[in-house]
């Protein structure tokens, strides 16, 4: 049980020493001069600013070039789509003109007759 009891430490008090302590005053806050820039500092700042400016310029140039190429691509895709449409119409006209009915009609208008001995099947 004695282990749980609070412990007290007693010290002898020196009666000759005064009870007041002398406290040292804090030193005044130091003032610092502004740091001077050396030539190396100016060169470093100039190089960093030049690099940032170059990256910004390249970014803008690349953006404009990308937009121009995108416009050209869209124009080319439009022309390709128009050509495909025209090709589809031409194929439709060719199929219509080479159908059996159209050929028989053309032959009848021009006085031609069908001779089955001269017909060869080339689709086989």
From TrEMBL:
Coiled-coil region: 73-100
Gene Ontology annotations of biological process type: cell division
Keyword tags: Cell cycle, Cell division, Coiled coil, Membrane, Transmembrane, Transmembrane helix
TM spans (from-to): 42-62
Protein name: Protein required for the initiation of cell division
Organism: Oenococcus kitaharae DSM 17330
Lineage: Bacteria, Bacillati, Bacillota, Bacilli, Lactobacillales
